[in-house]
Amino acid sequence: MLKIRNLHVSILDEKQKSKEILRGITLDILPGTVHAIMGPNGSGKSTLSNVIAGRPGFDITAGEILWDGKNLLDLSVEERAIQGIFLAFQYPVEIPGVNNMYFLKSAVNALRKYRNLPPIDAMDFLKLIKHKIKDVGMDEKFLSRAVNEGFSGGEKKRNEILQMLMLEPRFAILDETDSGLDIDALQMVAKSVNHLRHPERSIMMITHYQRLLNYIVPDVVHVMANGKIIQSGGKELALLLEEKGYGWIEPQGDL
Amino acid sequence: MNPISFVFSDGQFARKQSTLKALLRTIQFRYHSKRIYLHIPKMLEISEPLQFVFLGKKDYAMERTIILEEESKVSIFEEYASHEKSTYHTETKTHIILHKNARLDFYKLQKESVDATHTAKGRIEQAEGSAMQIFTLDSGSLNAHHEWQVQLKEKHAACALHGLYLLNQDHQHINHHIHVDHQAPFGKSAMFYKGILDQKTQAFFNGRVKVHEKAHRIEAQQENHHLLLSKEASAKSEPQLEIYADDIQCKHGATVGQLDPASLFYLRSRGMDEITARQLLIEAFGMEVLNKISDSTIRDYMQREVNRHE
């Protein structure tokens, strides 16, 4: 589904100097698998998810990302989205003046257009969203408000999950969606992700905590440090990290 | 749009094109050599807006006096336009007097020919408890100049001035000089102006709030924001506060910026194409001012003009 080969990514820092953030990432995401990516702050986890989603401002200096065998980096942000790549943002932006419901409907219709389907019927959309909004435990009043404007941290994350449920992506990336969530919200996220699990769908979760992985059991756990994946393993790896921290693992890698 | 309308062509009253109803028996409307006099008697409330249409082709200058007697309430919608693309200068002077507890909602749409110059100067005097609201949408003229001098002369008078201006033709220029004078206690004033500038266009905004010594317990707000869509567009905002009283609340904010790349990425990451996403963010920027219009018919009308312009 997604193949990342020796990916090197740099950004320009405040002094306009090039700084390498990802230093040779190789990763295979097979259909139906759930990957957890862990690692200390600054290891490049968020950069990896942003590069996959297509955020501008990153310089890809080497390597490639293949999506269904084609070069993902040739696709615009919106093309990636309509082809099924979804990023649940770590810090969802507030967009005053853009109605949340209108935004969701536009997103659904962009997808439908790509699949040569007519725009969704207004009543069908309403029915669908009222059903999904219950699943994420959000009040309906948030639909009539501007996108994320004045939402609490938890409400913003619920809104991300709501979008994910509406768009049913083939590859969903959850960038620290669990950070700052209470246990109820965490269980909602887990329930939603588990509900989406499907042989044709893959998920990549970026997290600092093993806690989330109790609810969403990953197939593979990767540890990133310093722009590289330094260890991959089964779900036991997350438990080991929880117990021992990252220290025991880092010296082994070629940093 | 509504049944009571006054139409002027190059400053001359066009009686035949105007629709005057029985209402003119209750209000006073006089017109003489490009001077308009409108008088709303005591206690009269008119629910439908009075519409003024000014069509230009040649230079013209007009003077207006609008008087609202005690406890009267009216809204005025005026539109400046041209049937054809031509070069002319419109110059208006407006003097508005609001007596005790009078209320005026004043809406203005300036969509003159793109070669025209529009100059509007206005003076407003407000008595105790009176309330005035102004909304201006600028979508036309090569040069536009707006001046409002508001004097809140007695206690509990309130004024709110709002504006949205859209510039997208090279060399278009707009400037605002909005001055509010708090002369009495317990007054309220708000200024909220936004500009969307594309191509090689320029905007200048000067907002001044003066709070006199005896004008205690007043609230004043001033906001002016510009969205620049091209590298050649430029905007300057000059907020001024002159305060001689204690115990008052004044807030002001001014920004000049581009479309937020993070918002743009967010919308696109949900499948919206770049052009649509940009358009949506531009509309959203203007929406915040349009939403200040309480009359939904007028708001829709203005909204259509904004959409037509883009």
Characterize this entry briefly.
Chain A is an alpha/beta fold.
In CATH, the architecture of chain A is 3-Layer(aba) Sandwich
CATH class descriptor name of chain A: Alpha Beta
| Class per helix and strand makeup of chain A | alpha/beta
Question: Spatial order of the strands in the main sheet of chain A?
Answer: 6-9-10-3-11-12
What is the number of domains of chain B?
A: 2
Commentary on this structure:
The complex is a heterodimer of chains A (255) and B (310). Chain A has 255 residues and is α/β, with parallel strands linked by helices. Chain A has a single domain, classed as Rossmann fold (3-Layer(aba) Sandwich), CATH 3.40.50.300. Chain A has helices at residues 45-53, 77-82, 100-114, 122-135, 153-167, 183-196, 211-215, 236-244, and strands at 2-12, 18-29, 34-38, 59-67, 70-71, 85-88, 95-99, 146-147, 171-175, 202-206, 220-225, 228-233. In chain A, the strands form three sheets. Chain A has a six-stranded mixed β-sheet, with helices on both faces. In chain A, strands 2-1-4-5 form a four-stranded antiparallel β-sheet, covered by helices on one side. Chain A has a two-stranded antiparallel ribbon with strand order 7-8. Mean pLDDT of chain A is 92; it is low at 251-255. Chain B has two domains: 5-259, no CATH class; 260-310, no CATH class. Chain B has three helices and 19 strands. Chain B has helices at 261-268, 274-290, 296-309, and strands at residues 5-9, 12-13, 28-32, 35-40, 50-55, 60-68, 73-81, 89-98, 103-111, 117-126, 131-138, 143-152, 158-167, 173-182, 188-197, 202-211, 219-228, 234-243, 249-257. The longest helix of chain B has 17 residues, at 274-290. The A-B interface holds A 53-57, 76-78, 80-82, 86-87, 89, 92-93, 95-98, 103, 106-107, 110-111, 114, 146-147, 163, 167 and B 260-263, 265-274, 276-277, 280-281, 283-288.
